[in-house]
Specification:
519 residues; alpha+beta; 4-stranded antiparallel β-sheet; 4-stranded mixed β-sheet; 12 helices
């Protein structure tokens, strides 16, 4: 039996889908992403009607444009999962999710010449089947409106709480569709498909632990999969089944150029219309918070100048040099409003940073410049490499996969990647270990490889070490067998990730006032 999911037969040309007009972005700029390091796949800025993807691959674009998972994209050239792009676009007022998908489809056709079609192929997926013990849900009388919501459940003795799904008058396919986004940490981008043949609607509550809690909760059988079987009588298993996939027939690696008129429209404001800066009260909380409001206001609460500088230049603390001590000790509340725009541009991530820099220059008399200095980087070096030569049929790219060990809760699967591509991807999946340090390839190894890396997330690794430090020396319950990123790379790949000194670009503070000018 095939999936009930349907993807239309699609051949895209500029501005149309199967003969129907397509909603389009008011303005859009897309080009190759020049920066290295973590991506910023942001999506919609509802405050300014901006839709932005920074560092997105073509696979990322297609997953968002068609609402599919990466494993449901086939065909196309090898660079689809490796080459990165940046998109800044403006959507019409009131645009919904389906409209934005169609705008992305039209943009990809127009700017990249993308042509695709849908067909059914066997792909990896999670299926829902009735467990041996039978269904444990209660049939709905049908009088209630269909709904599923996620709420905080029972508190845990070790801190935190369960997540509870409360579903009313809900079919299993409806539950599967809703859970696809709500338990993404378990599914890792893989489809969840109903195979129960149950046609009734049900009322039920499902209580489980999120993946990042499994290691510390000291609770057996608390995962989403275990809970579904024990509480609902639904068994979820990984398998291969026929599903509709998007097949890439044609795509250009270099997008067509953005016109000067569109770039001018997208430029956005360069300075706040008004800004009020005050010293924070000593008991202010939460520390370092930032909020953006629909009317164009940006507010910082109990934030240091260092935090604001870091936001304005999108850099980490160790990339700021020459700053006097007060930049990290004095706290300020800032309320600033972007000017009303005649154009549709509004403010974006880039214009927000431009306005913050201008604010610091005007009110704190900040003078700064970029300079290359010797600094720490994390370099990947060869030790005793244990690398598997790539299958030439695999498309280059890295993705997460569901881990079997809740303490070693990060599973990274890379296919057909060079060492340089692997190093470039690492901060996207293990940012806490890098703490803003650049990652560089110093292995000297050439060729492409298929890699699997299983390690503990930085937070779990820190908590496990802290728990062992105050204990008896034995690994506490719930922290069995943690492994750091560095140890996992050495043990599983025969490589080393070590700190080295290299020239890095830092922001040098030449001058900054301790207090701002008058409001």
């Amino acid at each position: 039996m095939f999936s009930t999911r349907v993807l239309p037969l699609i051949f895209l040309t500029c501005g149309c889908i199967c003969g129907q007009s397509t909603p389009v972005f008011i303005a859009a700029d897309v080009h190759k992403f020049a920066q290295s390091g973590p991506r910023a796949l942001i999506g919609l800025f509802p405050e300014s009607n901006h839709y932005e993807l920074h560092g997105a691959t073509m696979i990322d674009f297609i997953t968002r444009a068609w609402g599919v998972n990466a494993g449901e994209i086939a065909g196309g050239p090898a660079w689809l999962g490796a080459e990165r792009f940046e998109l800044v676009a403006v959507v019409p007022n009131g645009a919904n999710t389906d409209g934005i998908k169609r705008m992305l489809q039209g943009m990809l056709a127009e700017r990249f010449g993308l042509a695709v079609h849908s067909e059914t192929r066997p792909v990896s997926a999670f299926t829902i089947q009735v467990a041996k013990a039978g269904v444990k849900m209660k049939k709905s009388a049908g009088a209630q409106q269909q709904s599923c919501q996620s709420v905080q459940g029972e508190r845990l003795p070790a801190g935190g709480s369960y997540t509870s799904f409360i579903c009313k008058n809900t079919t299993v396919p409806q539950f599967a569709e809703w859970a696809q986004t709500q338990v993404a940490g378990y599914l890792a981008g893989t489809s969840l498909v109903d195979r129960t043949n149950l046609h009734d609607a049900w009322n039920f509550t499902l209580q489980f632990l999120q993946p990042n809690q499994l290691a510390t909760a000291h609770v057996e059988g608390g995962s989403f999969f275990d809970a579904a079987e024990k509480q609902l009588g639904l068994k979820i298993a990984s398998t291969k089944i026929p599903l509709p996939v998007i097949v890439v027939d044609k795509v250009d690696e270099n997008p067509s150029a953005t016109s000067p008129e569109v770039l001018k429209l997208l430029a956005g404001p360069t300075a706040f219309e008004v800004a009020v800066i005050r010293t924070s009260p000593p008991d202010s909380r939460p520390q370092g918070s930032k909020n953006i409001f629909p009317d164009g206001r940006i507010e910082f609460r109990y934030s240091t100048l260092q935090e604001i500088i870091r936001t304005a230049w999108r850099i980490f603390d160790d990339r700021i040099a020459g700053a006097p001590s007060f930049v990290s000790t004095h706290h300020f509340d800032i309320s600033a409003k972007a000017p009303s725009q005649e154009s549709a541009a509004g403010f974006s991530l880039a214009s927000e940073e431009t306005m913050l820099r201008k604010l610091l220059e005007d009110r704190f008399k900040l003078v700064a410049h970029n300079e290359d200095r010797m600094g720490d980087v994390l370099a990947l070096v060869a030790s005793k490499p244990k690398l598997k030569t790539a299958d030439p049929d695999n498309r280059p790219g890295c993705r997460t996969a569901p881990p079997s060990n809740p303490v070693r809760n990060r599973m990274l699967v890379c296919q057909s990647v060079t060492m340089s591509q692997f190093v470039d991807e690492l901060p996207n999946f293990a940012g806490g270990y890098f703490d803003g340090k650049p990652a560089v390839d110093s292995t000297g190894i050439v060729g492409s490889f298929d890699l699997t890396l299983n390690f503990s997330g930085f937070g779990i690794w820190q908590r496990a070490n802290a728990a062992k430090a105050v204990g008896t020396g034995d690994t506490p319950p719930g922290f069995s067998d943690p492994i750091s990123l560095q140890d996992a790379i050495q043990q599983q790949l025969g490589l080393k990730l070590e700190v080295q000194k290299r020239p890095v670009t830092v922001l040098v503070i030449d001058h900054i006032n301790e207090t701002p000018t008058e409001n």
